[in-house]
Structures are given as C-alpha cells and as structure tokens.
Amino acid sequence: xxxxxxxxxxxxxxxxxxxxxxxxxxxxxxxxxxxxxxxxxxxxxxxxxxxxxxxxxxxxxxxxxxxxxxxxxxxxxxxxxxxxxxxxxxxxxxxxxxxxxxxxxxxxxxxxxxxxxxxxxxxxxxxxxxxxxxxxxxxxxxxxxxxxxxxxxxxxxxxxxxxxxxxxxxxxxxxxxxxxxxxxxxxxxxxxxxxxxxxxxxxxxxxxxxxxxxxxxxxxxxxxxxxxxxxxxxxxxxxxxxxxxxxxxxxx
Amino acid sequence: xxxxxxxxxxxxxxxxxxxxxxxxxxxxxxxxxxxxxxxxxxxxxxxxxxxxxxxxxxxxxxxxxxxxxxxxxxxxxxxxxxxxxxxxxxxxxxxxxxxxxxxxxxxxxxxxxxxxxxxxxxxxxxxxxxxxxxxxxxxxxxxxxxxxxxxxxxxxxxxxxxxxxxxxxxxxxxxxxxxxxxxxxxxxxxxxxxxxxxxxxxxxxxxxxxxxxxxxxxxxxxxxxxxxxxxxxxxxxxxxxxxxxxxxxxxxxxxxxxxxxxxxxxxxxx
Lengths: 252, 270
Ligand SMILES: Nc1ncnc2c1ncn2[C@@H]1O[C@H](COP(=O)(O)OP(=O)(O)O)[C@@H](O)[C@H]1O
Ligand SMILES: [Mg+2]
Hints:
The complex is a heterodimer of chains A (252) and B (270). Chain A is an alpha/beta fold and 252 residues long. Helix content of chain A is 35%, strand content 25%. In chain A, strand 9 (223-228) and strand 10 form a beta hairpin. The N and C termini of chain A lie far apart (45 Å). In chain B, 71% of the residues lie in helices and 4% in strands. Chain B has helices at 10-27, 32-57, 61-84, 98-105, 119-136, 138-148, 150-155, 160-186, 197-207, 219-238, 244-267, and strands at residues 88-89, 108-111, 114-117, 189-190. In chain B, helix 1 runs antiparallel to helix 2, helix 2 runs antiparallel to helix 3 (61-84) and helix 9 crosses helix 11. The chains are: A alpha/beta (252), B mainly alpha (270). At the A-B interface, helix 3 of A face helix 6 and helix 7 of B.
C-alpha cells in the first residue's frame, strides 16, 4: 500500500480531517470539523456528553462514514467501510467495554481474530507461539503474566486496557484511538494505564485520546481539541493553555 | 451452545433424515448410499436456512429453531403418510448398498472375543475432531469469542455471521449422522425418531459444564455429560426402578448443573 511505503520514509503517520459533517436524522452530530494529528503526540478530544466525541472517533476508526468532508491518512484520501479496513491501514481503536473478552484466556484474547496458524494443512493454531508472544509483548508494558492461560477476567481493569493497547500495537497499529480508557478505573489502575499511554510517544504512535477528565488529559496530552454541540470550538497546544483555561472554555 | 446458540431442530432433523433416506432408497432405485448423500445435502440446506434466519432476523435461535422443530417434524410425518400411508417404513435390508452402509455405520467389531458396536469408534472420532476444532483451531477461537461477545468478536474482524451459520449446518450434519446409524441398525425409519433428542443434547452439554450464555465449554465435558446421562438411564433400568424416576433425576441434574455453571460464571464477572 502506498501510504505504508511513505510511512517508512517520513516516519510520520498523520491523520487529517477536512470539513467533516455527520448527521443522524436531523441531529447534526458533527459540523465542519477540521483537524490533524501526528506521530509521537497525544491528542485529547474533550467535550461534554453528547458533544460528538464518539461520532468523531467512529469516523476515524471506520465504524461510520462522514456525510461530507475529507479524511486523509498520510496524504491519501480514505473511506473505510468497516473497522477492519482501518486496522489494516494501521488505525486501531481500544473500546472501553469491548476491549477484551473476560471469559476467554489471555493469549486467546491477545490473538483474537488474528490467530497464529501452524504451517500445516490442518490450520491448527500455534499455541506455543501465541503463549510466548503474549508473555513477551505484555512484559514490554510492565505486565508480567506467568500463565497466559488464565482467563482474562482475572486481570485488573487497567491490565485489560493495557492488554488491548499491547495487542493493537503488536498487530501494526501506528495510530491508536483510546475512547475513555480510564473512566471505569480506580486511581491506582488509572495511573498504570496513563503511564503506558505516555510511553506510546516514545514508540512514535499517533495517539487520539477521548476523555472528559480534564486534569488527567492535560497532564498527558500534547494537543487539545474541544468539541461542543458537534463543533470544534478550540484547539490548543499544551504550552499555550492550562487545565483551568480548558475547563473554562468547556463550561462556558 | 458454546457459540451462544441453541438448535432445537436436531431431533426433528433425525426423524427427517432417517425417513428421507429410507423413502429415497425404497421408493426409487438410487440405492442407499446415494439416497444418504442426497439427504445430507437437503439437511445441510435446512441447517443453512436455520442459521441465516437467526443471523438475519437477530431473533433468538431458541425461537427460530423451535419453529423448525415443528415444521420439519410435520413435513416428515405428512410426506411419509402421503407416499406410503404409514409412519414407519422398513425393508432397507434388501436394498442396494445397505450392506456397505451398515458396515460403516452400525456393525460390530470384535476385540478379544467381545463385540463392540462401531458407533464407539465414531464417538471417539467425533470427540477428537470436536476437541481439535474447538481447542486447537482458529475457528475454535472464533466460536468461543462469538459466544462470549458477538460485538467484541465483530470488532476484532471475526466473521461472526459465517461462524454462526456454519454451526447450524454442523448440528444438522450431526443429526443426519445419527439418523444413518439408526436406520442401518433398525433396517428402517420411524417419523418419530429423535423426539426429545434436542433436550437430551442440551442436558448433556450443560452437565458437561458449558455455559448457557455461551463462550465457555468443552467437548470432553460434553462427552462426560452424555456418558453420565447414559449410565444413569441404564442404571435406573437395571435397578428395576420405574423409568419415571429417570426423568426426575435428569431434570434435577440439569437444574443443579445450570446453578453450578452460574456460580462459575460469577467468578469471572465483568
Ligand atoms: N448511532 C446514532 N444514531 C443516532 N444519533 C446518534 C448516534 N450516535 C450519536 N448520536 C447523537 O449524536 C450526538 C453526539 O453523540 P456522541 O458522538 O455519542 O457524543 P459523545 O461521545 O461526545 O458523548 C448526540 O446527540 C447523540 O444522541
Ligand atoms: Mg461517547
């Protein structure tokens, strides 16, 4: 694919949205949204409930198509018809509740939908590889699992989010969308996840983080987009703003 | 059931398959092997229809296949009556190809003087096949994921619709297989064969530890569940107790198994 080749040259995985509109019936969920995001940065999408954050994220991740406007990934205009196509283009989403399946074991979750196959005619899963890889990849994110055959439900909430992030990166995500990754977690678990999200910058990932925890977002974000009633009402780089300023705009 | 679906039509499909093979064999001159293959194609198509209806309508498979249970049984009885005027048809023994069919599906083999029905070998074969499919294949992982959470599975790119539809075809195939072993044993078919087999199957699976909500279960557990079912049934007959007690026992087993499985499920609460 053209954009993957270009990635290697520029090492930047960029998303550009130009004048995006999305309606549901007569609700204008998104109005004239234009923004861009780049590798090695954490971009926070802030807004009240119903502002249009999820709709925006769903367009980027291939769940919806925009009614109008351009969606450009690394200079190529794209129009994904499902999340699978976005994933193949290196854009992965970690959904809050659907990230992992608690009743299945850890390594089966890690390789869900991407099962490694032994090189034989019976198409059997290569479990040894799956187990080793799961251990190895999770260790990169400071989670040591002695037994990946444990059910994923025995992981803490934070560990589950991190598992989903590790999985997305292992399968080639360069652009990672996190929809409220810590909103269901306690403080300690939340900090674990935040620590790993910050690490994503060193891995040169383009991170798009949806949040309504302003203090936390300000702490980890590089760039902030404020959405109100489907419109982009503010766009700030970290040095130009503060958590309080962001809050004032949001609550205005 | 691991994929989160029920197929209540298997009992009726057993009756249908047996009658279809028997009628095609005795009323035409296809011979029994060809009649069996033709029937298999029809039965797989019925399974496909079950699956597609469940997937497209979004309704519970419990309801859809309850419908097919009655439709298929009704058709079997009606067609058998129209063609032969009876609900039991025999005379397969003299037909073309019966010998080879009964050798494959229902004869005995002898190990050091003891006779074993060949169905034991089939039982082991399907046990191993199911084990490999569920625990060691890619499709197995898809089946568990589909049962545990269709939404998550779909987001990870698993072809959930195809998984569900093919499993209805698989249960239809199994019903056909049982029917063949029955008619080669008895030399004919009865429209009522397979009645209540759908419930027996569910009981064996649940006693074997599979969760009614899907996403968890094993072939070994199911095989043990089926064994328990068979042993208890024989045991009660041998003990000379009234067969009614067997029903009481099975019902109680089913309820306890569901309760125990439910406790297990809570252990991995979301
Ligand atoms: N699938 C949908 N169908 C109809 N309306 C929707 C749908 N998704 C979102 N909306 C509407 O679009 C608006 C923005 O919603 P959403 O993007 O979910 O907001 P947020 O994630 O910021 O809370 C809301 O008014 C919501 O009711
Ligand atoms: Mg939302």
